[in-house]
Amino acid sequence: MVLTFTLSTFAHGRNVITMPHSSETETPTYVQKWFMNANNRQSEETLTEFHFFIQDQISGPNQTVFNVAEASVTPNSPYFFGRTQVVDHLMTAGPEFDSPQVGRIQGIHALDDLHETALTVNWNILFTEGPYEGSTLTLLGRLVAYATDGELSIVSGTGKFMLARGVALKKTYSTDAVTKNMVMEYRLYVSTPGA
C-alpha cells in the first residue's frame, strides 16, 4: 500500500499535510475545528508565564520518584548511568509541601551521562486547579542532578495549550541533606497560537 499526501500552504506560511488513514476512529471534533480555524488565525501569540514549586520526594512516605529499570553497568556507575525512573511530583503554589496544589509533573527520566549525574526528561505538567485545569504541557530536555539551575524545552501541550512551545527554567529552592528530597522552583514561559 502506498500512502500519498498533499501539502497545502495557507496564510502566514502555515503548512498542512493531509494523509489518508485507515483508522475507524475519526479525529475528535474539537481538534478538527481548532485545526481548520488555524488558517483564519492571526500570527499573534498568547504568552503565559507560570511560577510554581515541585516537591521532588525521592524517599519517605510521600515519595514521588520510583526506579523502573537499570542497565547492567548501573550498580558500578558513580553517576547511576542507565537508571530509568518514573515520577509523579506534586506542583504547589509555594515552596512548602502543604502549599495549595496546582498540578502534577508526571513522566519518565533516564540517567544517561557517563561523566556526571545528568538525566534526560520526558515530563508532562498536568494542571489540576484554576483556569488551566485538565490542560497539559510537555517538557523535554536535559537536567544535571542537584545543579542549582536548569532549563527544559516546552514542546507541546493539550487543552488550552494546544501547539504550545516555550521554556521552563528551574532553580533548586532547597535540598534536604539527609533524605535528598528537593523543592524546585520553576518559571515557565509559554507561547500558544492566538485564537
Your description of this structure?
With 195 residues, the chain is mainly beta. The chain has 2 domains: 6-40, no CATH class; 45-193, AOC barrel-like, CATH 2.40.480. The chain contains 1 helix and 11 strands; from the N terminus they run ββαβββββββββ. The chain has one helix spanning 29-36, and strands at residues 6-9, 15-18, 45-56, 65-69, 84-92, 101-111, 118-127, 136-144, 149-158, 165-175, 182-193. An 8-stranded antiparallel β-barrel has the order 3-5-6-7-8-9-10-11. A hairpin with an 8-residue loop joins strand 5 and strand 6. The longest helix has 8 residues, at 29-36. It is globular and about 55 Å long. Residues 1-25 have low confidence and may be disordered. InterPro entries: Allene_oxi_cyc_Dirigent, Dirigent. Keywords: Apoplast, Secreted. Homodimer. It is found in: Secreted, Extracellular space, Apoplast. Pfam families: Dirigent.
Furnish the topology, listing elements before pairings.
Blueprint: E1 6-9, E2 15-18, H1 29-36, E3 45-56, E4 65-69, E5 84-92, E6 101-111, E7 118-127, E8 136-144, E9 149-158, E10 165-175, E11 182-193
Subunit structure: Homodimer.
Pfam family, one: Dirigent
Subcellular location: Secreted, Extracellular space, Apoplast
